[in-house]
Amino acid sequence: MASGLVLLIEDDPYQQRLYTKALESAGYTVASGDKGEMAPRLCDLNGPRLVILDINLPGISGIETCKRIRQQFSMGVPILFVTSTDKLDVMRECIEAGGDDFMVKGSNIQTYLERVGYWMNRRCLTREERTSVLKKVGSRLPTGDAKGPEGQGSYKLDWQAVAGMVAFVDEARAGAPPELGKQASEKFVLLGYAAGVVNALANSNLDVKVAFASYLRALLEETKLLAPKEIEVSVGKWHTMYRIAAFAEACRKGEEDFGRRLQGTPDSRPTPLSALLSPT
């Protein structure tokens, strides 16, 4: 079960109720407000692990609210923007203001909870990560007509991007014994590493972020890291597994490793998956 306090600043009553219900159902405690001016004081009172901001707020905007939070609390709490636009210049403003991530309204609740789960379990962007995201935020991969509300249509994946992740994971698995992945502890490592690889791409690519589960499923299916039945179960709840140390560490390593590959860092070889397994 998830845990931790989320501060939600959303002026639309319907959206606020929708997100609050979803977050509470996932196990989070929620403090909410409907004006940007409230956010710094609510941060001070509640000490949230994550702040979720709408961009279009009455009074000061979500972007100005983010700046004020950063002035008051520095980089102590991750900030996730939720916006009704997917314009890249707006996304860039969010990151430049001190935000760490963004979601487009209309994404399904599962996708929303995935990003919340991700940021509830990691630090804010470092200066280097923020610079990297700003460099790449204008280079979204085209995926065609991705459709939004849950249960209405499916996402068209960029299979070139999937192939790049598959090749990377296969490289990480090279040299591992054939029986790798038979034990439950090993399955958490494999799932965590794969999720980390997709996270690295999603951090600066809105299309991948919105269709995260679809990309993770494709990566697991193409690499055959898990059995088909295990894939379906795992994709639905991967973001709830950070409390499992083996998963969390493998996820962190996968994100770091593939992040270096995406940035073109010299000697950006993946960590061998066999090296991530705890001795039994």
Task: Walk me through what this model shows.
- With 280 residues, the chain is of the alpha/beta class.
- The protein folds into 2 domains: 5-136, 3-Layer(aba) Sandwich (Rossmann fold), CATH 3.40.50; 159-276, no CATH class.
- The chain is 52% helix and 9% strand.
- The protein has 13 helices and 5 strands.
- The protein has helices at 13-25, 39-46, 62-73, 88-96, 109-119, 127-136, 159-173, 184-202, 206-210, 212-223, 228-237, 245-262, 273-276, and strands spanning 5-9, 29-33, 50-54, 79-83, 101-104.
- Strands 2-1-3-4-5 form a 5-stranded parallel β-sheet, with helices on both faces.
- Helix 8 packs across helix 10 (212-223) and helix 10 packs antiparallel against helix 11 (228-237).
- It is globular and about 60 Å long.
- Mean pLDDT is 85; it is low at 140-153.
Short précis:
By secondary structure, the protein is an alpha/beta fold.
